[in-house]
Amino acid sequence: VRHVFHAPLTVELKDLVLGEGWDMGLLTPAEIKAGKAYSENAGMERSLGEFHQKILLDFMNKYGIK
């Protein structure tokens, strides 16, 4: 079982507090489909991870996000 919660982002990304993990950012559908995105902290392109990518792709398909 997996859950995806979504809501409008009503504050700037810089105002959010990352409580766990190394990086936080907004990804484009193209980056999600590619399974990788540029990480400012790493200074390079990083993989999303196959399981996380599948969750996001399933969510995008369910809501017609191309």
Overview of this protein structure:
This protein is α+β, with helices and mostly antiparallel strands. The protein has a domain at 23-63. It starts with 28 loop residues before the first helix and ends with a helix. The mean pLDDT is 94. It has 2 helices and 2 strands; from the N terminus they run H-E-E-H. Strands 1-2 form a two-stranded antiparallel sheet. The radius of gyration is 13 Å and the shape is globular.
Q: Which helices and strands occur, and which strands form pairs?
A:
Layout: H1 29-34, E1 36-39, E2 44-47, H2 50-62
Antiparallel strand pairs: 1-2
Described by the principal axes of the CA atoms, the overall outline is: globular
Strand content: 5-15%
Q: How many E-type strands?
A: 2
Element order: H for helix, E for strand: HEEH
What is the helix content? 25-40%
Structural class determined from secondary elements: alpha+beta
What is the subunit arrangement here? single chain
Alpha carbon gyration radius = 13 Å
- Number of distinct helices: 2
Q: Which strand order spans the largest sheet, edge to edge or round the barrel? A: 1-2
Main beta sheet, described?
2 strands, antiparallel
**pLDDT average, as an integer?**
94
Termini separation: 24 Å
The stretches of 5 or more residues where confidence is low (pLDDT under 50) are none
Write a brief caption for the model.
With 66 residues, this protein is of the alpha+beta class. The chain has helices spanning 29-34, 50-62, and strands spanning 36-39, 44-47. The protein is built from 2 helices and 2 strands; from the N terminus they run αββα.
